């Protein structure tokens, strides 16, 4: 078989797999539609109110998507790689039960698509079956790593967002504590206020409030939040609030001092970034701006000199 034939064969196998997956769900969709029609008929016979309450949505491609998700593991495995993926998902803000399966499905789809495309393109370009298969395998593996890189980038960005929001949260907690609220009530109020503004730290505090309602101790819930976010300042805040709740001490002055320290750290980081800026712009300045300036300054003089030397 020619190299182009191998490339087309691999692409056809991937397309056939997707087609078989869709066909496998067609029978289930028909059975579900028949069952849905039967239940709807029974509800209509029972009465208009029951029929209105049992109104179902038509099945679509979401059913196929859900079927594919159900075939993937719900939780990360207990291995080191699974634990690392779970931590990355939590730090990126994906703490739901289906997020791990969505991540695995994204890796699978991206890897298979890139492998098929790389195989076809390599077969058309090189004309060698071995090269097309090697390029297809390499492209699939490289593309399968892209969701993980995106997840790490999103997690780092979310950590920076939480660090910027922490000083404001501390000020709000100080106001709540000085108004006479307890630690748990203050966290609840601040979490609700910041969650309405769609802030990352507000969502984490809302999770802490939900855990407190289920009976989890405050110190454990705060430490879990700190580990979930991976921010060092949150660990300090969690230890301070947990100790204050256990001892009943006033935490307002301590939180105010922590907020001032965080603002000082932010200012120092901004100053460091400003000091590093001249070094960062040196390379593009020497590569792009300086040649253009030399051309503008020395170009006319060089042209005049050449005209003067020309016989």
* Total count of strands: 0
Order of helices and strands: HHHHHHHHHHHHH
* Poorly predicted sequence stretches spanning 5 or more consecutive residues: 24-29, 47-59
Measured between the Cα atoms of the first and last residue, the distance is 68 Å
Put simply, the count of helices is 13
What value does the Rg take, in angstroms?
30 Å
The overall pLDDT average reads 75
Q: How would you characterize the overall build of this protein?
A:
The chain is mainly alpha-helical. It folds into 2 domains: 3-144, no CATH class; 156-268. Helices cover 84% and strands 0% of the residues. The model is unreliable at 24-29 and 47-59 (pLDDT under 50).
Defining key terms:
13 helices; single chain; 2 domains; mainly alpha; 0% strand; 311 residues; flat
What does the secondary structure layout of this molecule look like, with pairings?
Elements: H1 3-46, H2 48-53, H3 61-70, H4 80-91, H5 99-126, H6 129-144, H7 146-178, H8 183-196, H9 200-213, H10 218-229, H11 232-247, H12 252-280, H13 282-309
